[in-house]
Automatic annotation (TrEMBL), chain A:
Protein name per UniProt: Lipoprotein
Automatic annotation (TrEMBL), chain B:
Protein's UniProt name: N-acetylmuramoyl-L-alanine amidase
Pfam families xrefs: Amidase_2
Lineage: Bacteria, Pseudomonadati, Pseudomonadota, Gammaproteobacteria, Kangiellales
Signal peptide: none
PANTHER family: N-ACETYLMURAMOYL-L-ALANINE AMIDASE AMID
Keywords: Cell wall biogenesis/degradation, Hydrolase
Length: 131, 212
């Protein structure tokens, strides 16, 4: 009985690990086109936003660790801070443009799809300079 | 003149759909109106979202022109969010204010905390030295999806004709009710807070063309 429980536990753990690996490997070919961009044109904000620089690793972690949110959730529950970085990536063999904003929101877009994402401070605590 | 009983408008053009969880504390005086867009295509999706959330606005105007009053005019709604500095946007900051904003945004701390500090500094000011806050404004949401894709400066759906008609009626009545100025006391949300840049802007432009 003991062995059966151990075997089952190992099987469950193995399948969880495999699932996680699968979840964290679907984003690839991350390219950063623009860093430290600003929605506002004035000098104070533009210069402040110049510090919003993310590594490819951070982009990868952001999209893996963030949650998909609806447009209405983005509208009702999140501020849109003016600083952002953007680029392109491949998700499940499909090319997307991405944007990540200071404060922990982001978006993926293709010709026919827009996917909003948000990552809490806790969930993305390993990403420096995001929040 | 509107007939208002205990903060609720009694008029056949307005449907009472008060959602208690979006009402927060007393609204002592209405000094401004803030125009919002819902980022959703139907009134139902916004009404459903507000049922379980704390943020919302006093009115929701459907594409059909139906006006829902969703909060008492005596209560505050959390509709403004992270306010921008008015003097920075209008180029009228005192030396002290300009220094504070620059030092805060270029200083250390999280991005959220830096922009929040600027907002908290604004909160200390009186209206109209700052933009309106939840504590002195009414929020009007107009149903309309965001059409800007992944960008943050894109447009929202154009107002439908019956929606515009109701919007114009409501704004005219509220400005008269609270003795507010159309030129001075009406604001597009995207112009004053950290939201999609054009939220409420097109609606405000439409209003400018049609308000007399």
């Amino acid at each position: 009985m003991k062995y059966i429980i151990l075997l089952l536990t190992s099987f469950v753990l193995a399948s969880c690990t495999s699932k996680n690996t699968e979840q964290t490997s679907k984003y690839s070919d991350i390219i950063i086109h623009k860093q430290g961009q600003s929605l506002d044109d004035d000098d104070v904000i533009t210069r402040a936003c110049a510090d919003f620089v993310l590594s490819k690793n951070s982009v990868y972690h952001f999209f893996n660790q963030s949650q998909v949110i609806s447009e209405i959730q983005l509208h009702n529950e999140h501020d849109i801070l003016p600083c952002y970085s953007e680029g392109t990536l491949i998700l499940d063999d499909k090319p997307y443009s991405w944007r990540i904003r200071a404060g922990g929101t982001g978006v993926l877009s293709s010709n026919d799809e827009v996917i909003n994402k948000a990552c809490s401070e806790k969930a993305c605590s390993n990403i420096p300079n995001l929040h | 003149m509107l007939c208002i009983f205990d903060g609720v408008i009694n008029n056949p053009k307005v449907t009472n759909k008060i959602i208690p969880n979006i009402e927060h504390g007393i609204l002592p005086k209405v000094k401004a109106l803030v125009l919002h867009r819902t980022s959703a295509g139907t009134a139902e999706s916004t009404l459903n979202a507000w049922q379980s959330k704390k943020s919302g606005a006093h009115f929701l105007i459907d594409k059909t022109g139906k006006i829902y009053q969703t909060a008492s005019l005596k209560k505050q709604c959390w509709h403004v969010g992270l306010l921008q500095s008015r003097c920075r946007l209008e180029g009228s900051c005192s030396t002290e204010d300009a220094k504070f904003i620059k030092k805060t945004l270029h200083g250390s701390g999280s991005w959220g905390s830096k922009f929040k500090k600027v907002y908290l500094n604004e909160k200390k000011k009186d209206y109209p030295d700052r933009y309106p806050l939840n504590s002195d404004s009414l929020g009007i949401e107009l149903v309309g999806a965001y059409l800007g894709g992944s960008g943050d400066k894109g447009p929202f759906e154009k107002l439908k004709e019956p929606q515009g008609k109701s919007f114009l009626w409501l704004v005219t009545e509220l400005l008269s009710q609270y003795d507010l100025s159309f030129k001075e006391d009406v604001y597009a949300h995207g112009s004053i807070a950290r939201k999609k840049v054009k939220e409420g802007v097109d609606a405000f432009e439409w209003l400018k063309d049609n308000y007399q």
